[in-house]
Each structure stands twice: as structure tokens, then as C-alpha cells.
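Suppose a colleague, Dr. K., hands you the sequence of a protein chain of 176 amino acids and asks what its three-dimensional shape might be. Before reaching for any lab equipment, you can write down a predicted structure in C-alpha cell form. Begin with the sequence itself:
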Amino acid sequence: MIKNNALTIFFHLLISFLCFAFIWFGRESDFGVRFLFGTPAGKVLLILLILAAYQIFGKLLSTRGIADVITSSLGIIFLNLVLIGLAYMGLGRDFFTMEPAQSLRNLPYTLFNMPYLALIKSWKLPMNKITIGLSVFFAPLLFSLSQGLYLRKKNKRRRKKKRTQDQIEDTRWRRR
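The predicted structure, expressed as C-alpha cells, is then:
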């Protein structure tokens, strides 16, 4: 559990850095900004890239059972709550109306939640208590879905392999 929590935090930071770099280098050209944030195709591309990153990194987590799927993202939830609390203590109610990285007090929250905030800003959704509350569960939900899908696929392979071994043993038994 601790290894998975550390890995999910590391992978989430890596995805946040990749998202930050993608947006940073995408803003160098006017076409990149207009395509990425102005067209529906750019917004869908951003969503697909973020979902693919969470899917890829979620498969790298160790998953032995449903308990691992549920508990592996508790570190991200806790860290998100701490960062929201720190930003709220420093900014008060202005935190809920402030743009991402507008103040140094909400910069850690912004950097940690860069994939979620990029999606929110690309779809021009307002920053309020609801969207900030959803940011706590965005990454854990995507990691859990990725792990759940991988666990399901792994269990199917295990059952299929067991059935194949049982069939081989049955044919050996019949030959005797």
C-alpha cells in the first residue's frame, strides 16, 4: 500500500510536469494556443493525452486485489487536501475565484493539479468550490480505473490459463 501510494504521487507529479511542459511549449506559437484551447479537437486531444498518461502509469502500479485499487490513491487525496488547506489559509475565499498560479500561495496546488486544471481551463469552466472539490478525486479516480481494468484483464488471463491447464490434464487422464 505504501509503495503504491508513493508511486501514484510520483506518477501524478510526472504527469503534471508533462502536462505543464506540453502547455508551456504549446503556447510558443499562436497556432498551438488556438488549436489547443480554442478548438474542440484540441480540447479532446488534451483530454485523450491526459487519460492515456494516467492509463499507462496506472498499469505500472502493483495490483493484487481490489483493496490495492481502492487504497493506492489515498496519498494523492491526502496531499490534495493539504494543498487546498494551505492555499485556503493563505488566500481565504479568494482562493476559490483566483486563476491558477495567480498567487504564490496557490502555486503548489496548481502545479500538483496541472492536468485537471488544464482540462478545466480548456473547457472554460469556472473555478469554484465544486471544481476544486472535484480536483481532489480526479487523479485517484483515473488511477483506480486504470488499475481496475488491468486487474480485470489479469484475472481473465489467469482464469483462461487455469482452464487451459485443466483441459490438458483432462486429456492426459483420458489417454491412460
